[in-house]
From TrEMBL:
Protein source organism: Williamsia herbipolensis
Pfam families: HTH_IclR, IclR_C
Domain of life: Bacteria
Keywords associated with the record: DNA-binding, Transcription, Transcription regulation
Sequence ranges assigned to domain IclR-ED in this UniProt record: 66-234
SUPFAM superfamilies to which the protein is assigned, alphabetical: GAF domain-like (SSF55781), Winged helix' DNA-binding domain (SSF46785)
Keyword set includes Transcription: yes
GO BP, one annotated term: negative regulation of DNA-templated transcription
Classification via PANTHER family: HELIX-TURN-HELIX TRANSCRIPTIONAL REGULATOR, ICLR FAMILY, TRANSCRIPTIONAL REGULATORY PROTEIN
Protein's name in the database: IclR family transcriptional regulator
Length: 235
């Protein structure tokens, strides 16, 4: 843990990071942060008051919407570039489009747009999704560091060999992995240095997209990812 010398700040950040890695109740929070029970409870309740933490349906603390709002307000070059590209991708596909970033062992939706009509795969901005299922997870994990891959692959819906194939092909697809009845296809987004910093996705009902959505939308998705990369390169 990074130490700033401001005790209450360091402890608050430790609570935030712990809950971002995996939602936890008070007992789990104390065990994972080594904070006294009263301190952990006080900090978590304070962060919840400011909407930096919220409770999931099981009562565990997880990252709250204020985090995404603060990030958006601070400015994000990748997100801003994506927002210039996502509308056209949505128009071409007629489906939901998203941009994901990896945060620890989860992926976070940092931008999303929905089609005006029809069934949608609604993923709200700020939503934390697993890194163990779905095409967006596959892309982010395919270009993640080896230690992260080793930690997550055993519990994933895909294998190391599958990730190697995704790196070779340049995109990933899924059908019913993250959510029953939903298909998606994703591609890596690279920054100006060529590093993969996000995944751009198209998702929608399997009935419309089919069980191999990449055969239909991979080329358009790769073009959109390249358009974001060019905007970042010339920013």
């Amino acid at each position: 843990m990074v130490v700033s010398g401001v005790g209450v700040l360091d402890k608050s950040v430790a609570v935030l990071r712990t809950c971002a890695e995996s939602p936890c109740n008070l007992n789990e929070l104390c065990a994972r942060t080594a904070l006294p029970r009263a301190t952990a409870h006080r900090l978590a309740m304070g962060l919840e008051t400011h909407r930096l933490l919220v409770r999931d349906p099981s009562g565990r603390w997880c990252p709250g919407p204020a985090l995404a709002e603060l990030a958006a307000d601070a400015g994000d070059a990748v997100r801003e570039a994506a927002l210039m590209v996502l509308p056209r991708l949505r128009e071409i596909t007629g489906e939901s489009v998203q941009l994901y970033r990896r945060e620890g062992t989860q992926r976070v939706c940092v931008a999303a747009m929905e089609p005006p009509t029809g069934l949608r795969d609604t993923v709200p901005v700020g939503a934390h999704l697993p890194m163990t299922a779905g095409s967006g997870a596959k892309v982010l994990l395919a270009w993640a560091d080896p230690a992260t891959q080793r930690a997550l692959v055993p519990d994933s819906a895909f294998s190391e060999r599958g990730l190697l194939e995704i790196r070779r092909r340049g995109w990933a697809q899924s059908a019913g992995e993250r959510e029953a009845g939903v298909a998606s296809v994703s591609a890596p987004v690279r920054d100006a240095t060529g590093e993969v910093v996000a995944a751009i996705s198209v998702s929608g009902p399997i009935d419309r997209m089919g069980r191999r959505p990449g055969s239909r939308w991979a080329a358009d998705l790769l073009a959109a990812a390249e358009a974001i990369h060019k905007r970042l390169t010339h920013a």
